[in-house]
Design brief:
By secondary structure, this protein is of the alpha/beta class. The termini are close together. An 8-stranded mixed β-sheet has the order 1-2-4-3-5-6-7-8, sandwiched between helices. Helix 3 packs across helix 4.
């Protein structure tokens, strides 16, 4: 995958739409052309936004792509005033669908963690989708691990947030202070952190709602590339691998050794290579 053009202006604009009477917006970085649009769907955690979640990848994406970065409703800039947000998989699927409509028929989906599971759910109902890349998704997972339960709890302070983030990498290294601070600021005040905890009060039920049913998995025919860390403590690779083995004969699954859940920062070169291969499979030269 080629690096972004040196000195190229990266202009971000906002787009708007509505789903279930909820207005939402997302950010678009206009590309220079010659590459398909990319729609990015983030995972779920304290202080998660599309921009924060995909920061390691955004800096490396080639300048040709239009890049659409979603904040799922209930996160980041998509928190409706006066409305209690829930773990609403049908709502999020519809939200991603709307953004894909705006992005155009050549759009490719990139989903991280729960965003990867949502991307597969969208792919199952949208056979015209050109291609999907899935990063560390709990698409077949039905029970939360201790690491995921900790990460899906509302942190009391920055230190608690950093502690919950440590198991996300294979070596449990302390997360960079700038990343912790960005997430802490995005997590908002105590009321917003409490709303996050309420949304994820039953982690097992949340995972079961997001998981990809076998009957849907078997309908996915477009190119799909899946990356998963072998040392992923939040979303272990077994359920995803079993789903692919049993029901997704057209998908490519790569298991990454010495890698946890934070694949975009732990194994950047593998993410770049997977995207390049996905684009080649859908008829584009990366």
């Amino acid at each position: 995958m080629n690096a972004p053009a040196q000195g190229a202006a990266q202009q971000w604009v906002q787009a708007h739409d509505m789903v279930d009477d909820i207005n939402f917006s997302w950010r678009i970085r206009r590309g220079t052309g010659g590459a398909p649009p990319l729609v990015l769907v983030h995972g779920i955690g304290p202080g998660t936004t599309g921009q924060i979640n995909f920061a390691p990848l955004l800096a490396r994406l080639p300048a040709g792509h239009d890049v659409h970065v979603i904040d799922l409703i209930g996160f980041g800039g998509a928190v409706p005033p006066g409305r209690t947000c829930t773990f609403d998989v049908p709502l999020w699927i519809e939200q991603v669908d709307r953004v894909l409509d705006h992005a155009g028929p050549d759009a490719h989906l990139i989903g991280n963690s729960v965003g990867g599971a949502l991307s597969l759910r969208v792919a199952a109902r949208r056979p015209s989708l050109r291609g999907v890349m899935v990063i560390g998704a709990p698409a077949g997972q039905r029970q939360a691990t201790p690491a995921l339960r900790d990460f899906w709890s509302a942190p009391a302070d920055r230190a608690a947030l950093a502690a919950a983030m440590r198991p996300m990498t294979a070596d449990c290294a302390p997360p960079p202070s700038m990343v912790v601070e960005a997430r802490w600021q995005a997590a908002g005040d105590s009321a917003r952190r409490a709303a996050f905890a309420a949304m994820l009060a039953d982690p097992d039920a949340c995972l079961q709602a997001a998981s990809l049913p076998a009957r849907e998995a078997s309908t996915i025919r477009m190119p799909v590339r899946i990356l998963h860390g072998l040392q992923d403590r939040a979303c272990p690779p077994g359920p995803m691998a079993r789903l692919v083995l049993d029901h997704m004969p057209h998908a490519d699954l790569t298991l990454l050794g010495d890698c946890g859940h934070a694949i975009m920062s732990e194994r950047a070169a593998d993410v770049d290579a997977a995207l390049s291969l996905l684009l080649l499979a859908t008829g584009y030269s990366a």
